[in-house]
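Exercise 3.2. Students should predict the tertiary structure of the chain below and write it as structure tokens, then compare their answer with the key that follows.

Predict this chain's 3D structure.
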Amino acid sequence: MPGPKRHRRERTDEWASIKEWTLWPEQELYEQIRPLILFHETAGERAKEIDVPQRTLSRKADEFEHYGMQSLFSSGEQGGARETGKTLPPEIRQLIVDLHAELPTMSWREIAEVCYIRSGRKPDHKSVKHIATATPPPALQARRYQPWHLIPDPAERKLAVIRLHSEGWSITSIAEYMQTSRPTIYATLQRWTEEGVAGLEEKSRARKGPRKVTLKVANEVRKLQENPLLGKWRMHTALLRLGIEVSPTTCGRIMEANRQLYGLEKPQRQPRAKLEMPFKAVRRHQFWSCDVRYIEEHLLPDPKPVYVITVFENFSRKVLASAVSATQNQWDYLAVLADAIRYYGAPEALVTDGGGIFYSTVAIQLYDMLGIRKERIDPGEPWQDYAETLFSIQRRLADHAFSNARTWPEIQQAHQTWWHNYNVEHHYAHRERQDGRHSPADVLRGVLGRTYPEEVLSRALYATQFTRHLDRHGYVKFKHWRFFGENGLVGEEVSVWVYEDTLKVEHRATTLSLYAVRLSPDRASITEVKNARRLETHFRSPQLDLWQLSETEWLLALRRPEPVARRNQGKIVALARQLPFPELNATG
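Answer key:
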């Protein structure tokens, strides 16, 4: 029986009419891509005509050219159309069941991928799920490969990883199946890619580079560890100063081994809560701190304490000026402060405790004249002063040397060594700086505060401090007297302090000599000098003495002769020319 008669339609390219006349989705899809296949129209032009995404048209056209009409009836993906469970052969169905039994956590899509790699046919992931959960038991009765740690031969367990990966197993699935970590699987596959069969051999884990901790390094740590107060950070910075780069953690390990080997004691530290510092600087020379520390453990003949007076810059944590002194009066403090101001300028503010030397009349006048704001920490709260933190570091770095000092030069040398090492070693507060500046000296990097001409500083200390230079014999000339300073500092600039009938000669806050003087009523001249004392310092003359002089033989203070009026040389020459001697007249 003949079918219904078809009515003839006019040929048209109008997409609305074509879409209305199509009967099946596959027919509509073909009409969408037909101009691309037959007439090589671009996907962009066709997408504008029919309002369909350009990428969809391009992908469908590529699938049609590759798979033909079959691509119109299923979504071709990665090499072919997906297959349903009914079209799969029994061996692939059994493979799906075995994979699911071997690793139940493997995803359905991954099982489909393994099937495609092993057989060339890729089932739909929904079909994979149906087959794996609704078919007879798997053919596998045991694991194909034992866990990683149970395979004794390193090459065999690496081969197992490579075989599973070649079948399409993901890194995560292989690591879970072999009961090891993902980095282990990555490393195994990378060695196989780079080295081939040679990568199956067990790789030696011996150290390739030279060891940093040599016997020389360990010996340096042992020698520095004679100071029992050093911690691993200060040990690390001390080794850096010697050109040895070892991490603080490694230093701590070596120190602990030395303690067990040599029976050394570990310093005990009390834990304390971290408090917010009220005078924390945000720029250089915003705050200076000053304080006095007592050194009671020493071997000097005089058992009295030795005082360390220090001026400290809060931002960089650099020690600007410091001195060890047998006394702690206002003049000792002013000498250190004046030395810091002369070399680094004046700060915005000076932070101290309530000590009387910091609030003397001369000190207050100096603050006012130089525009220095005076700040004071709260009573009973020494932690607010950064100098206390500095003294805690000094205790660990220098107290061992202080306690063994038997002479004044030795204690001065220990102080100078601490001062230099502290400023150039890495500071814990600067450990996280990104500019490579980790020591106080590098952080301050020569930046000055408010500088004043020497005339202003001299006027500020006009009644107390004077600047002179040592002559070739180590003496200074002052008020028609010559006072001995130090023959090891010939030509250097020194300070002469006059206060309370005492005259002191010092260099860089180090006292060189002391004199008891009597001043005239107008304090313009010195009438008498007695009780002259030359102090031993760490400064040494390069010229050895021919013989040693006792304190009674050494003339430390010499009165200069009164100036004599010079004769009129012109009158003498004129008188000589009047004499009847031709020789004198010829020579003048």
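Discussion points: The CA atoms of residues 235 and 251 lie 7 Å apart. Confidence is low (pLDDT under 50) at residues 75-81, 581-588.
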